[in-house]
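= Protein in question =
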Amino acid sequence: MFKVLNLALRFMLELILLFSIGYWGFHYGTGLLAQAALGIGLPLLAAVIWGMTISPKARVKLPLAVVLLIEFLIFATAVACLIDSGFVTFAIVFAIVAMANRFFVIKWRMQP
């Protein structure tokens, strides 16, 4: 039961991650074209990297340490985007929940 809830939480965290990077991108660029490119391009880039290296069906099988490093960098980017967008408290809560979630994914051996 808890494993299923943890996987659901992980999916929600991934969606928040993509949304926060996109939100920042749409509000950071100067001009409509730059905002659209950043707001769509950055989350797409993060999703492609995530899908190729971190997801359970990743095509590239990397050692756990490398997967954790890539995941940390992507989540750190999302947290930085949230902070820069003015959502400091949410960014802190997001980071803590993401770390706890990752701890349980490793503890319960939910990632191959």
In short: Residues 2-107 form one domain.
